[in-house]
Amino acid sequence: MFLSLLIYVAIGAAVGWLVGNMLEGGGYGVVGNIIVGIIGSLVGGFVLGLIGILLPGGLIGSIFTATIGAILFLYAIRFVKHA
User: Sorting pLDDT into bands at 50, 70 and 90, what band is 4?
Assistant: First the structure.
């Protein structure tokens, strides 16, 4: 249980850092990266499930899903801020 949580947070931090560097700036700090990555994984899983895309499980599938979700999440945040 604890190991799964630790892996989930590590993937969240890595994805948050990756997306932060892909879109703009140098990330959102350690805590911000973790939050963006975790929310991204939830959003990515939800959105990909809605449109019927099933990715293979494991680390690569988790990172890909979280990255897509984090990008969507950050674009949604920017849209709301500028609307």
Answer: confident
Token pair in block for residue 83: 């609307």
- Residues 21 and 67 sit within 8 Å (Cβ to Cβ): no
Beta-carbon contacts of residue 4 (< 8 Å; ≥ 6 apart): none
Q: Rounded to an integer, what distance in angstroms lies between the CA atom of residue 67 and that of residue 16?
A: 8
The SS3 call for residue 65 is helix
Residue carrying the six token digits 């190991």 = 3
pLDDT tens, position by position, 57-76: 778 888 888 888 888 888 88
8 Å CB contact between 73 and 47: no
CB of 72 within 8 A of CB of 47? yes
